[in-house]
Design a protein that fits this description.
Elements (H helix, E strand, L loop, with lengths): L10 E2 L6 E2 L2 E4 L1 H4 L15 H13 L4 E3 L7 H8 L8 E6 L1 E4 L2 E4 L3 H14 L7 E5 L4 H7 L2 H10 L6 E4 L3 H10 L2 E5 L8 H10 L2 E5 L15 H10 L6 E4 L4 H15 L3
Parallel strand pairs: 3-4, 3-12, 4-5, 5-8, 8-9, 9-10, 10-11, 11-12
Antiparallel strand pairs: 1-2, 6-7
Helix pairs in contact: 4-6, 7-8, 9-10
Length: 270
C-alpha cells in the first residue's frame, strides 16, 4: 500500500503563476537552535539527515521550502543540499531580520534589502528566489509605510531576481496593507489564533497568496481528549479558500509523513 502524497493537490500561489504543495517545509531547524519557541528541544540534523528529509518531502509531493537569513545557517545549507534539483522547488526566503550571536536585529532599509537578497541568492546557489517576504518585527504598518523594503522588493521582482514578494507580519492591518501591492502574506492562523482571518478573506477575494505560519501553534496545541490536533488544525486551515499552503517546520520523518497523509485525506474528500 503506497503512502498518501500531495502530488495531486498542488494549487496556485495566488496570481504569481507558481503552483505549490498545500504543505511547505519550514527549515528553521536546519540552521538554528537558539531562541526558537518549541515545546521540546531538538538537535540540528546533520547533512545526511537533512538530505533524507528533503528527499522524503519531495517524494511526498512537497515542493515548497521556507527559509530565512534569520534561520541561522539554513540558507547556506540548502544551497548545496538542493544542487541538481533546484527547479523542483519553490523557495520562500525573507528580508529584514538578522540573527547573530543569539540575538535578532532588524533592518528594513532599501540598501539592506537589496544586499540581503543578493546574499540569499549566493547562499542558495540560485539565480532567482520564487518568493521573498519581509520578516516583520511587529511594527507592520510602520515598515510598509516608512521603510524602503517593499519598493526595493518590487524592483528586484522587475529585475527577475525574485518572482514574487510579500510580508510575514503580526497584525491583520499589516497583512491587508501588504497585499495591496504585494503578492503574498504569511499569517498566523490556527486553532488558538485567528485574529488575522481578515487577511485570508481579502486574499481569497483579490487572488493573492496566503502562506500560514504556526499552523499547528508551534506544537503547543491542546484539545479535548480523542481529538487529533493535527487533523483539527488542517481542517480549519483548508476550509478557508484563501489558504495556499501551510508551512510546517518538522525535522521528524514520521511527523512529516503523518502531516502529509492528514492533509491528503482532508483535500481528497469529495
Amino acid at each position: 500500500m503506497s503512502l498518501p502524497t500531495l502530488h495531486d493537490h498542488h494549487r496556485p500561489l495566488g496570481s504569481t503563476g507558481l503552483r505549490v504543495s498545500p504543505l511547505g517545509l519550514g527549515t528553521v531547524k536546519l540552521g538554528r537552535d537558539q531562541g526558537v519557541k518549541y515545546p521540546n528541544g531538538f538537535t540540528i540534523p546533520d547533512d545526511q539527515a537533512a538530505h533524507l528529509l528533503l528527499a522524503q518531502a519531495r517524494e511526498l509531493g512537497i515542493n515548497l521550502i521556507d527559509t530565512a537569513p534569520a534561520y541561522g545557517r539554513s540558507e547556506e545549507r540548502l544551497g548545496p543540499l538542493l544542487r541538481g534539483q533546484r527547479d523542483q522547488w519553490v523557495i520562500v526566503s525573507k528580508v529584514g531580520e538578522e540573527f547573530e550571536n543569539g540575538q535578532s536585529h532588524f533592518d528594513f532599509s532599501a540598501a539592506h534589502t537589496r544586499r540581503s537578497v543578493e546574499r540569499s541568492l549566493k547562499r542558495l546557489e540560485t539565480d532567482r528566489i520564487e518568493l521573498v517576504l519581509v520578516h516583520s518585527d511587529g511594527n507592520d504598518l510602520a515598515i510598509l509605510e516608512q521603510e524602503g523594503v517593499y519598493e526595493t522588493l518590487a524592483a528586484l521582482k522587475r529585475e527577475g531576481k525574485i518572482l514574487g514578494y510579500g510580508f510575514s507580519g503580526k497584525t491583520a492591518a499589516g497583512g491587508l496593507k501588504a497585499l495591496e501591492q504585494g503578492d503574498c502574506a504569511m499569517v498566523t492562523y490556527n486553532l488558538n489564533e485567528q485574529a488575522e482571518r481578515p487577511v485570508l478573506d481579502y486574499a481569497a477575494e483579490h487572488g493573492k497568496a496566503i502562506l500560514v505560519k504556526k499552523a499547528l501553534a508551534s506544537g503547543h496545541i491542546c484539545l479535548a481528549p480523542g481529538v487529533d490536533p493535527v487533523q483539527a488544525s488542517f481542517e480549519l486551515l483548508f476550509a478557508h479558500p484563501g489558504v495556499c499552503s501551510a508551512i510546517v517546520g518538522t525535522i521528524n520523518p514520521v511527523h512529516l509523513a503523518h502531516n502529509v497523509a492528514t492533509v491528503a485525506r482532508i483535500l481528497g474528500r469529495p
